[in-house]
Design goal:
This protein has about 100 residues and is an alpha/beta fold. The chain is built from two helices and five strands, in the order βαβββαβ. It has a single domain, classed as 3-Layer(aba) Sandwich (Aspartate Aminotransferase, domain 2), CATH 3.40.640.10. A five-stranded mixed beta sheet has the order 3-2-1-4-5, covered by helices on one side. The longest helix has 14 residues. It comes from Candidatus Burkholderia pumila.
């Protein structure tokens, strides 16, 4: 799938890693923030349209370090498949685990 020119919006958790979002804005994406709570990003699916991108840090959302709940992960996976949503999962620190494996998402 060619992302530039195909998708219209990138969705991300707020507060979050805005440098990546700004890069998408530079090539014409509209950035839509979704609040993060103790279960991770709380996506408003009414705003997410076919072809959009959801960017998330499912295991350690920066800066809160919360993990996306399994219920929200399952909902996002189902919605993404049904509505042709591209999901970018940024597991930015999994290579630094020494005493356990990353959470399977």
């Amino acid at each position: 799938m060619h992302l530039v020119g195909h998708t219209k919006q990138i969705h991300f958790g707020v507060p979050g890693y805005l440098d990546l979002v700004k890069n998408f804005e530079r090539v014409g994406f509209r950035a839509l923030g979704h609040l993060v709570d103790s279960e991770g990003v709380r996506l408003n699916y009414q705003l997410i349209k076919p072809g959009d991108i959801v960017y998330l840090m499912p295991e350690h959302h920066f800066p809160q370090c919360v993990t996306l709940s399994s219920e929200r992960c399952t909902t996002l996976e189902s919605y993404s498949r049904e509505h042709n949503i591209v999901t970018i999962e940024d597991d930015y620190d999994s290579e630094f685990y020494y005493n356990h494996r990353p959470v399977p998402l």
